[in-house]
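Worked example 2:
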Amino acid sequence: MNGFTILLGSAVIFLIAYIFYGSWLSKQWGIDPSRPTPAETQKDGIDYLPTKPAVLLGHHFSSIAGAGPIVGPITAAVFGWIPVTLWIIIGSIFFGGVHDYGSLVASLRHKGKSIGQIIEANIGHRAKLLFAIFAWVTLLVIIAAFANIVAATFVANPGAGTASVLFIAVAIIFGFLVYRTGISLAIGTILGVIGMIASFWIGHVYPIALSKEVWLIILMAYIFVASIAPVWILLQPRDYLNSFLLYLMMIAAFAGICMYRPEMQIVGFAGFDLGGGNWLFPVLFVTVACGAISGFHSLVSSGTSSKQLDNEKNARMIGYGSMLIEGLLAICATISVAYVAADQLPAILKNGGPVNAFSQGTATFMTALGLDFNLSKEFVALTISAFALTTLDTATRLGRFIFQEMVAPKGEETNPVSAFLGNRYIATIVTIAIAWYMSIGSYLTIWPIFGTANQLLAALALLAVAAWLKRTGKNTLMVTIPMYFMFTVTFCSLGQLIYANFAKNWLIVAISIILAVLAVALAVEAFRVFNTDSRDKLVSQAAQQQQQE
């Protein structure tokens, strides 16, 4: 099979899904362009801020993309390119896209509130607290893992680290020019892209080599500022400008595959059991992760994007469209390793991991466009590190939101302890301090739990959306089917992790048990409410029928 055929076919399928299934979801959920959004009704210039669709798409897509849609599919390629490709396509359309779009719309209907607050409104306070703890623990894992990955990348590629630091300065200048001097977005974008090119050149020519420990400290300082600063000065501009790196890399990869026409060399299907506990189910579905569905996306949709959406008509593009674009990126990642001979893949993965494999494969395709291999590989590596850094700062801000919700719930703002812990500076410090401690060493210590926790978070977010839809009398089938599937996948995976790491890695065992207990307790709370609502509805219908008789 030719990689070009797979990529083009996937792109056509995604486009059809966006037009038809995305439109159907919009009608089912009552998208109304005339309805004011939370960004307009609660505008504060810090978290709530009406944002142009192009800028918000850049922020949202950069935040959700991260390194997940690259690392996940490449790691899962051991099962063969066919099951990976099928799950990416089916998952992005019917699972991840529904999850992301549903989380965004549910948040819009709850004044821009987070998934945890949506759960409180539709299931109860206890359920909201359970979800908040679950989400916060998951975010700590994400921050620790991605900080470790970014720091290691900067050590291995000092030019990427130098350019990334310069990108931050360019983003701040861009934000000031666009939001405070009144310069047009078009002119600001041109200046910003020029600044990014200059940063890349300076980083390439004058790389700054620092130790991993120093980079971790710098990263923690950066995400602290990114968490507390108004979104217009750093978060929005950096994500928006970084999105151009992502778009450029995807266009180059797409064009390179079209020109190079790589043949799929690795096996199409390796089997259901690869040994050592590597079973197609559930391992494939938690390994591909962000390439098909990711719980982290729900936190982005409800935590930042819903607070910046200027019109509901753009919700489908931001929520559903972004997931389909990410699915296409995951297809590119699969092709980037599937073109090599099967016996070469283990060596490539061993020498630098999935990121190196993707950089090498994509750079190889880009040579068909007349580009230099080494420079292309460095550009791809820089882009991936930018993804990871974007995920890192967004995860920190979301962690701060959730921690504040836990320690300073509405009505307790005057409590001295709640007021102190709920302060955005203290909430950020606590979140970063724990994540920094977890990041010391190697991310491999906690990475095995990342995929499962992330997918279980997706199941819980779908549960929240289902609860809202049920309470408002809307169709829930498009949400409950993927919800039940993801619950089944993740609980099976947690069981595997506990069994495989028992008496070997107590950190993974402990986190797995904690997450499982929290998820079960939350599911019980939700289904109790579902059953109560259904029973009350039946009683009401019976009473009405008796009155009619």
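The chain has one domain: 3-34+67-72+82-157+247-548. DSSP finds 22 helices and no strands in the chain.
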